[in-house]
């Protein structure tokens, strides 16, 4: 068995999109080279990485001690995966040659039995596989598998693929029903194993992924017993209590988990693998388990920006509707993981509810993690920031008002790299009969059925066209996701210039066009992109009395740079008359800004008064949320009081 | 020199007030006996106190080890001070006899040189006076001084007074210009020394208080140098960094401190002593320093309830206008300290601005600390509580949704006892020419000039009368504080039934009545107590778009018990039509409740929607803030969105 709806290969897609090409070039031209230097310890002022040197030492090519986090290897893996995709976006022979060299080192570092983790090879060989909860061996393995598969897919080179196959085989030899029990502390290996399964066709990798998923929560005390057995902890006094089963998603089996809990990145990585497996095995029960968790997140535990995991403590989900704006955690990586999850759900059922969330993440809570110059990064993505408080006062210390540079635990930047460079693979999936377009994205996509060239002005304008050049097989269906924010009465679809009025083709968020395609058929879509006022559910305490603005998929925010001091005193009127402006200058050039008449409340100097603050008319300016904090430290809010 | 305006003796006042007598009886009948049992380790289930046993051991009357906090002695001192005042409220020979016995033990525990601190006498005699920052010897000494003075004032017995005089003399022998430098870690001894000065007339105690106050901040690194010198820390890894000079109010001299910073209780205890000294020495510069700090607190750093010190981290002040409701710290003791501060400021200048704050504290942020049954206590006084979040999720863990019972670090309960039992001393002060009434309080007050009997229906009704029976000196001034919330056009004042229209007598918040008083002159005041909508300064982010209700001095809040679930979805209309109801049944009997037409917003199930939540008409009920959390765990808010 395998999925009815399959992902497509990144090499099939060439993106030329006004919005996303720039973002991709930021990754290929700035972030990847910068991270390469970091990994090689060539950037003064940035905390030493030593990650490649660790591999050299493990390979016997260098002498020295291991240095870095226990999961330092994953930095190399994620970088390699990003490099793999970047080579599809922008071929670079020299970069590829350097990546090949690193892969050579990795191969040499691998132990005869297939084991591969430099922390344990170099530093604590006697402690291998004893501390799955804390020591991230399976996590690093998963990332290396993703890198191996990606590098194979985009370059055709299989050296790293073979390394990770041997690594996976070693893992299979260690854990399982008839071997030692085991589950990863930080879920990720399940994703890697699923990719390895698809790249090699070998069922054993899928079986291993299923084992890790289904073993989880069978013995909720597993990590506690593991700790007792080994008698040591990696993080010393900072070690987490292994009995916090919700943090580790071990409180119940994957089928019994009804709410998204615990460390949010680990959670969505697990859900991603669950959905992947459900799709491959056409496992309805597992799909329903995924759907339950999906619903809990998107209906009760997600910021409007797509941010998930609202508390810094444990970088975790909390409870339904607990979505504080100024204390948000909303890790960039968690939003990225949510895209992974959405993609797998789309490969089970192409429903608009999944593509809508994928779009929400792509345009908001993920790319808010990177400075427009590609040089600084947010780990935490708040929806409100107040200099003097944010980053300073208890409760808000994790909420930085500006993006810091590269940091020691640099999980988010390379995660963004691999996401954005592989964007093409999120744009489409394919079944026997149908090509599904999930995102409006300027590109040329080369399928067996056809070459499709998309021109898109999205998200700034409601204008997208699909030029279809059918190949041999001319009768197929093109299914185009129509984002739920598009009002049906404003959507106009033409095929070769002729209007298609029958919107009964739109089902579950997709426009289905079935015909015998010619060599130059053009499907053109136009739709309105009005500024929309959004209200939160009244259960969300922090958003009460407030509204947020969206336009298309883009969430907007208000910054001090445009609106002056004390932006909490600004008010959005009940009826808005918004105008848009394409910004042409400065760091925000290319973004559509929103201007609207609103109010500023001005109180007397008194701290408390019976006098209602006076209302004056002002013009408010909102900018895309993802672009906040690009003009220095200033106040920012997404949710604004309504008046 | 001494103050022009003096405090009066607690024995001069007998309170018979519908509101406050019940509160006083709660202290005398429930809290004092309960704490006595706690101090004697007679309450099962309550963490062992051992405080009296520590004194027995130090006195050689018992064998054993010291147990408890380094400041455990202060529990005994605060209890004794409360007992002293309670004996004025409600004489109790048996209680007094038991207190005498404890004082005998304390006297025996005192060392030949006057030293008195059981932790160091019993446990670490070699470490005396080496760790002023952490070890609270001066703090405990200050509380014992307050107890000794109080016990002398109410019982006439001077044994404890002599103990604390010897203790003070010992301290004087240790610290000063020509001796060792030193400042207290937790300010308090300055207050005790000032009281001791007034009780004994000995200037040296006032001089010592001035030394401790003026030495503070002269060398901002004092605690750091002290730490280096001694080479040990009391709290081990939990010790505070002595370089945090703002936490300890050592960042600048008392004259240079312009903002209220650091640990809020320590801060206001210091300001109290500063104001006390400024008054006694008619020190204008010091008074101005106090006024600067006062203004910073009441204009920028105080909750509407009078709560101060908004963050749990360091139990401290933060920055201007940072007043989160659901994360508030607002320690009960800090509000009590603010009353101490206000009283001393009134003794410098009888201004309504001080009496207004004193009233705000008495009716709100202090007594919210005690359950209506007198058995449970809040340390933290939030203005918003959400079960499931408060007390549970990071940031909100210190915010408990219901009052816990007695706790190990039980500073607030005995602080409330001594405040409420000594209430009479806050009601009046006296100058050569004038009797100042600061609070509307049912009572009989016996002055040299006159006996004044006050009948009061405050805070529930705007009706207060002062019956004046002049003694020999008939020509004096009666100055009655008119709270600033009273609208002048609703205030009617009669003297012996004749209306006094000339409100030019009202100056700086006091109504001045100068005449030759007879033996039965009655000044009667009536005024309206409308329900008032209060707006916060727009700089207070957390209150934006919201209003709070007050009636008289009482802040109101909304609880789930009256208003159902999801109270953040309730709305106060722009124009309110409020009605009041005297509650006659249940735990809130005797309190005036507010009912008003309002709205409930109801959203669809969607987390985010373009549809504005639907508005339905509801009747809202508000209860006095201090009485919240007396009906089990439920949601509570002071600030409600306006619609």
From TrEMBL, chains A, B:
<dbReference type="Pfam" id="PF07944">
    <property type="entry name" value="Beta-AFase-like_GH127_cat"/>
</dbReference>
<dbReference type="GO" id="GO:0102478">
    <property type="term" value="F:beta-L-arabinofuranosidase activity"/>
</dbReference>
<dbReference type="InterPro" id="IPR012878">
    <property type="entry name" value="Beta-AFase-like_GH127_cat"/>
</dbReference>
<dbReference type="Pfam" id="PF20736">
    <property type="entry name" value="Glyco_hydro127M"/>
</dbReference>
<keyword id="KW-0326">Glycosidase</keyword>
<feature type="domain" description="Non-reducing end beta-L-arabinofuranosidase-like GH127 C-terminal">
    <location>
        <begin position="531"/>
        <end position="641"/>
    </location>
</feature>
<keyword id="KW-0378">Hydrolase</keyword>
<feature type="domain" description="Non-reducing end beta-L-arabinofuranosidase-like GH127 middle">
    <location>
        <begin position="434"/>
        <end position="528"/>
    </location>
</feature>
<dbReference type="InterPro" id="IPR008928">
    <property type="entry name" value="6-hairpin_glycosidase_sf"/>
</dbReference>
<dbReference type="Pfam" id="PF20737">
    <property type="entry name" value="Glyco_hydro127C"/>
</dbReference>
<dbReference type="InterPro" id="IPR049174">
    <property type="entry name" value="Beta-AFase-like"/>
</dbReference>
<protein>
    <submittedName>
        <fullName>Non-reducing end beta-L-arabinofuranosidase</fullName>
        <ecNumber>3.2.1.185</ecNumber>
    </submittedName>
</protein>
<dbReference type="InterPro" id="IPR049046">
    <property type="entry name" value="Beta-AFase-like_GH127_middle"/>
</dbReference>
<feature type="domain" description="Non-reducing end beta-L-arabinofuranosidase-like GH127 catalytic">
    <location>
        <begin position="13"/>
        <end position="424"/>
    </location>
</feature>
<dbReference type="InterPro" id="IPR049049">
    <property type="entry name" value="Beta-AFase-like_GH127_C"/>
</dbReference>
<dbReference type="GO" id="GO:0005975">
    <property type="term" value="P:carbohydrate metabolic process"/>
</dbReference>
């Amino acid at each position: 068995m395998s999925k009815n709806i399959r992902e497509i290969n990144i090499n099939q897609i060439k993106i030329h999109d006004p919005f996303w090409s720039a973002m991709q070039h930021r990754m290929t031209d700035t972030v990847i080279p910068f991270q390469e230097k970091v990994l090689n310890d060539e950037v003064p002022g940035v905390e030493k990485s030593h990650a490649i040197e660790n591999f050299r030492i493990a390979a016997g090519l260098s002498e020295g001690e291991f240095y870095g986090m226990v999961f330092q290897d994953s930095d190399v893996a994620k970088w390699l995966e990003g490099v793999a995709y970047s080579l599809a976006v922008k071929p670079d022979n020299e970069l590829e040659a350097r990546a090949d060299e690193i892969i050579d080192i990795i191969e040499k570092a691998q132990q005869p039995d297939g084991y591969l983790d430099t922390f344990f090879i170099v530093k604590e060989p006697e402690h291998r596989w004893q501390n799955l909860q804390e020591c991230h061996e399976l996590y690093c393995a998963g990332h290396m598998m993703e890198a191996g598969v990606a590098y194979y897919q985009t370059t055709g080179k299989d050296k790293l693929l073979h390394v990770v196959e041997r690594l996976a085989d070693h893992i299979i030899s260690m854990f399982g029903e008839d071997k030692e029990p085991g589950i990863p502390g930080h879920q990720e290996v399940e994703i890697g194993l699923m990719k390895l399964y698809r790249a090699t066709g070998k069922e054993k990798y899928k079986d291993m992924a299923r084992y890790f998923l289904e073993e989880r929560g069978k013995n909720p005390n597993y990590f506690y017993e593991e700790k007792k057995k080994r008698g040591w902890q990696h993080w010393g006094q900072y070690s987490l209590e292994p009995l916090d089963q919700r943090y580790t998603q071990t409180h119940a089996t994957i089928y019994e988990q009804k709410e998204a809990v615990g460390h949010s990145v680990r959670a969505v990585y697990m859900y991603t693998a669950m959905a992947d497996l459900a799709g491959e095995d056409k496992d309805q029960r597992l799909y329903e388990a995924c759907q339950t968790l999906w619903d809990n997140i998107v209906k009760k535990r997600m910021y409007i920006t797509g941010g998930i995991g609202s508390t810094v403590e444990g970088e975790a989900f909390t409870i339904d509707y607990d979505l504080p704006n100024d204390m948000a955690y909303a890790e960039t990586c968690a939003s990225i993981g949510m895209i992974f999850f959405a993609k797998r759900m789309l490969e089970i059922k192409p429903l608009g509810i999944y593509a809508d969330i994928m779009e929400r993440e792509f345009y908001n809570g993920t790319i808010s993690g990177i400075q427009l110059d590609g040089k600084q990064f947010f780990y935490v993505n708040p929806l409100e920031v107040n200099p003097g408080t944010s980053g300073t006062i208890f409760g808000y210390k994790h909420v930085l008002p500006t993006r810091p540079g590269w940091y020691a635990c640099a999980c988010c930047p390379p995660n963004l790299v691999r996401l954005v460079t592989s964007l093409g693979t999120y744009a489409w999936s394919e079944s026997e009969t149908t090509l599904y377009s999930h995102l409006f994205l300027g590109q040329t996509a080369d399928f067996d059925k056809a070459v499709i060239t998309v021109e898109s002005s999205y998200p700034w304008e409601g204008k997208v066209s699909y030029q279809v050049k059918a190949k041999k097989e001319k009768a197929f269906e093109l299914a185009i996701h129509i984002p739920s924010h598009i009002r049906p009465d404003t959507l106009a679809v033409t095929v070769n210039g002729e209007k298609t009025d029958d919107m009964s083709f739109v089902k579950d968020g997709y426009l289905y066009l079935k015909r015998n395609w010619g060599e130059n058929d053009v499907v053109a879509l136009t739709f309105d992109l009005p500024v929309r006022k959004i209200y939160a559910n009244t259960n969300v305490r922090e958003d009460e009395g407030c509204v947020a603005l969206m336009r298309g998929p883009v969430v907007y925010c208000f910054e001090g740079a445009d609106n002056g001091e004390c932006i909490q005193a600004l008010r959005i009127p009940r009826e808005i008359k918004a105008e848009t402006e394409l910004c042409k200058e400065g760091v925000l050039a290319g973004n559509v800004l929103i201007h609207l008449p609103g109010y500023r409340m001005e109180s007397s100097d008194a701290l408390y008064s019976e006098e209602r603050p006076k209302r004056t008319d002002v013009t408010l300016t909102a900018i895309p949320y993802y672009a906040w904090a690009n003009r220095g430290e200033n106040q920012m809010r997404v949710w604004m009081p309504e008046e």
